[in-house]
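Preliminary data (for renewal application), nicotinamide-adenine-dinucleotide complex.
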Amino acid sequence: MKTVNHWIGGKSVEGTSGNHGPVYNPATGAQDTRVALASVEDVDAAVADAKAAYRSWGTVSLSKRTAILYKYRELLDAHRDEIAELITAEHGKVHSDALGEVARGLEIVELACGIAEKLKGELSTQVSTGVDVSSIRQPLGVVAGITPFNFPAMVPMWMFPVAIACGNTFVLKPSEKDPSASYRLAELAAEAGLPEGVLNVVNGDKVAVDRLLEHPDVAAVSFVGSTPIAKYIQAKAVEHGKRVQALGGAKNHMLVLPDADLDFAADNAINAAYGSAGERCMAVSVVVAVGDIGDELVKKIADRAAKLRIGPGNDPSSEMGPLITKEHRDKVAGYVHGAAAQGAEVVVDGTGYTVDGHEDGFFIGVSLLDKVPATADAYRDEIFGPVLCVVRAETYDEAIELINSSKWGNGTAIFTRDGGAARRFQLEVEAGMVGINVPIPVPVGYHSFGGWKDSLFGDQHIYGNDGVHFYTRGKVVTTRWPEPSEEVGINLGFPKNH
Ligand code: NAD
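Predicted structure:
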């Protein structure tokens, strides 16, 4: 059985706890791998190495830092397939989807390659006679990232490339469910020339997370995961005096107006609801059909759903893979089983789905629930599986009220040909990321990613300019070089500009 260790101080470290967690291949249900679970001492060792590395890394020139990042970008590019295979083996998503994840992570490495531009300070000359003022941004020190299972390569890459480009050193605690991709990312960073201790990976569970949150030498924490844990992370990090951004769960609505192209909308709904088996924080999990298009739209989605090919992620003919664990698969099935009793119409029931030759895999088919009441669990909870709810609304106003009364506000989308309606939607909707005829509006690397309400705790979004702000702190320097003859004299008054 393969063991995934920690990556500390530029090398593989077994750790001291002696504890391991299981890592499954979701397509077979077999446990092929185990992951070391860090003790408090292991986390302390990683933070100590990161702290030691910060002393030099924080002052390494921008050109040297970016030279390493460019090399890293090339190595990642060359290893796309290998990283995607690791993702598919432990997460289950199909290879093409895993490649997409790697590509979106690479985008942030490319952003980090241009960090010199982002870190340019500001200078005002002669703000007062003979006085100049400059604003600069400096790294924080050791920063930590805690990441979810659903994007084991991309989400870590939302964080550490920007953090280390800004001059910080990083301790990553990836999901214990699919740790191999993160570990490989750290190995490749070392191969690119990143000095020991700048990027560390500690694998583990709550023990490791809590130690990172409490550790006095960790200056900031980035978290991506479910809403209850995001809330916990924010509160505990703040209690321990840390800067924190904690991205949580979601329930993303796709509003379809009566003038929309319904084939285009149905294709997009299918892709965004069932891609990665619905295990995306930006998945569309609710379609809101406005006016009298509901029956036709539901039929179009159901027809397409019936044709989806579900199978192991390493089979090129599969369009959707299994769920992450058996327990999660059974929980998702529970929402479909309970939906009818709570007033929904079960149009497509994907539960009980098996794949020939993979009977022990964590597979489930896709489900489509229509006329789902806002009180049903399937509507209220984040299911995080291939279950699409359709809600009917008579008017745009009714639809937007429904969306805005959701406790989450990650992404949302409108499908329409009416520019005025789309414009109104983008201004009125309460969500951090809005798509107009785009179902999964994950921003490109040079814009920032983040939701509103229970989808993000903290004020800075992740990557882009917000990411640079999060991983740096401002300093303002006021300078005067007096002329040899200049005298200030004694004046106890508050300094005024002159
Ligand atoms: P999760 O919250 O269970 O785990 C995330 C991380 O927190 C993991 O590293 C895990 O080890 C750690 N963790 C779990 N329980 C903990 C506890 N009690 N104390 C301390 N640490 C703990 O999330 P997940 O199941 O891995 O990922 C799926 C969730 O992540 C979904 O809710 C999804 O919407 C969300 N997500 C959000 C975004 C976003 O950008 N907003 C992106 C991806 C995923």
